[in-house]
UniProtKB/TrEMBL annotation:
Entry EC no(s): 5.1.1.1
GO molecular-function terms, A-Z: alanine racemase activity; pyridoxal phosphate binding
Name recorded for this polypeptide: Alanine racemase
Residues annotated as the enzyme's active site: K49, Y279
Catalytic activity: L-alanine = D-alanine
GO biological process, one term: D-alanine biosynthetic process
Residues that coordinate or bind substrate: R150, M327
Pathway the protein acts in: Amino-acid biosynthesis; D-alanine biosynthesis; D-alanine from L-alanine: step 1/1
Modification type N6-(pyridoxal phosphate)lysine: residues: K49
Stored InterPro entries: Ala_racemase (IPR000821), Ala_racemase/Decarboxylase_C (IPR009006), Ala_racemase_C (IPR011079), Ala_racemase_N (IPR001608), Ala_racemase_pyridoxalP-BS (IPR020622), PLP-binding_barrel (IPR029066)
Limits of the Alanine racemase C-terminal domain: 258-386
Entry keyword set: Isomerase, Pyridoxal phosphate
Length: 400
């Protein structure tokens, strides 16, 4: 058998111990599938916060824009700056709250668009932006709290908030938005109540003669569950990465997961019955066993709570991970895999042959959500883009 240095397919892979593979064709496919659910009046914002949920913000942003998204959403100013430094000119909404003069100057300098959550925040923005009176007014997005109890002004106070922003110099009202707390719940009672409150707030804003040019409410759950949540813009994260917010939303669009996590076998050995494996000997072999050491661990984002309760794909077979997950390495029972070689690649998340393991599987074992799994992979794992690369014409387009 060829070692990985010699094998032609392995030669296409970087010689990393472990990595995250990001399929850009899947991202493009998911964006197109989501766009298909939207009317011509609704735009798509690709939410690329947290390094595009671990997929790599710039490559995902470029791919999503090419495939039909027209907005980008980030949580923080540095995340927005990263997109600008990559030459991306699409509108970028900063979803988090920012108040300090340094933050406000950075937002204006990098042409990011801020979320305003309170009247006080609007006043600070107007004051800091008065330093540059010659510039165009800054587009701002008003956040209403309709039931999430996170950021935003209480929906009952929306009209006064909008009037204040309308009056302030240097600010231009770009949108009014809110965020759903239970969009993926099959029981839509709470989401409907939030929607009612949102619409009441918008009606009150309009009654003051203010007509927000854009309204938005839906995350992935809202986007997949009901077109009445769509308004002028949908803010989609999870679904772009190919995961469903809940199983019952799987029928709406055919999504493909974009992320795979792979690592190399670094040693293969036989252990005798009765041998303990890894820290604490939380696994003891009940028979002679062939064991593989794989170069990935919790410092890469493999949750230690998966110890002894995860499977890994090896040559298209599911094998058990055994013993405690350590910082840099895990062990597998590969007794069913003949003649496994050092350097072979195993798949922790993703597909191999007709087997696959998803972030939803890990989330179910851990009692968490797929969002947290995706965001958990550390930067020690290089992100390797596979699938469709951007054409020259497209990359030029975003270089302005
Ligand atoms: C993260 C976020 C989203 C995207 O949520 P998904 O469930 O991943 O689609 C949308 N809107 C806001 C305000 C967010 O913070």
């Amino acid at each position: 058998m060829l070692s990985w240095e010699q094998s032609p397919s392995m030669a296409l892979m970087p010689r990393e111990r472990a990595w995250v593979e990001v399929n850009l064709s899947a991202i493009a496919h998911n964006v197109q599938q989501i766009c298909r659910l939207l009317s011509n009046q609704t735009a798509l914002m690709a939410v690329v916060k947290a390094d595009a949920y671990g997929h790599g913000a710039t490559t995902v942003a470029q791919t999503a824009l090419q495939a039909g998204a027209t907005w980008l959403g980030v949580a923080t100013i540095p995340e927005g700056i990263e997109l600008r430094e990559a030459g991306i000119h699409a509108p970028v909404l900063v979803l988090g709250a920012n108040h300090t003069p340094e933050q406000i100057r950075a937002i204006a300098h990098w042409k990011l668009q801020p979320t305003l959550c309170t009247p006080r925040q609007a006043l600070i923005f107007a004051e800091v932006l008065a330093e540059r009176p010659q510039s165009d007014p800054l587009p701002v997005h008003l956040k209403l709290d309709t039931g999430m109890s996170r950021l935003g002004t209480a929906w009952q106070e929306a009209a006064a908030f909008a009037q204040l922003v309308q009056r302030l110099p240097h600010l231009k009202l770009a949108s009014v938005y809110s965020h759903l707390a239970t969009a993926e719940d099959p029981d839509q009672t709470i989401a409907r109540q939030q929607q009612q409150r949102f619409e009441t707030a918008i009606a009150q804003i309009r009654a003051c003669g203010i007509h927000p040019p854009c309204l938005h409410l839906a995350n992935s759950g809202g986007t997949l569950s009901d077109p009445t949540f769509h308004y002028d813009l949908v803010r989609v994260g999870l679904a772009i990465y190919g995961l469903y917010p809940a199983a019952h939303l799987g029928a709406t669009a055919k999504l493909k997961t974009a992320l795979q996590v792979k690592a190399r076998v670094t040693q293969v050995k036989t252990i005798a019955a009765g041998t303990g494996v890894s820290y604490g000997h939380r696994f003891v072999a009940d028979r002679e066993m062939c064991l593989a050491v794989v170069a990935i661990g919790y410092a890469d984002g493999v949750p230690r709570n998966l110890s002894n309760s995860m499977e890994v794909l090896v040559r298209g077979q599911r094998v058990a991970q055994i013993g405690a997950v350590t910082m840099d390495q895990i062990m597998l029972d590969v007794s069913t895999v003949p003649d496994l070689q050092e350097g072979e690649v195993v798949t922790l998340l993703g597909q191999d042959g007709n087997q696959s393991i998803s972030a939803d599987d890990w989330a179910a074992t851990l009692g968490t959500i797929s969002w947290e799994i995706l965001c958990g992979f550390k930067h020690r794992l290089p992100r390797i883009a596979i699938g469709q690369a951007l054409s020259d014409s497209v990359s030029r387009r975003y270089e302005g």
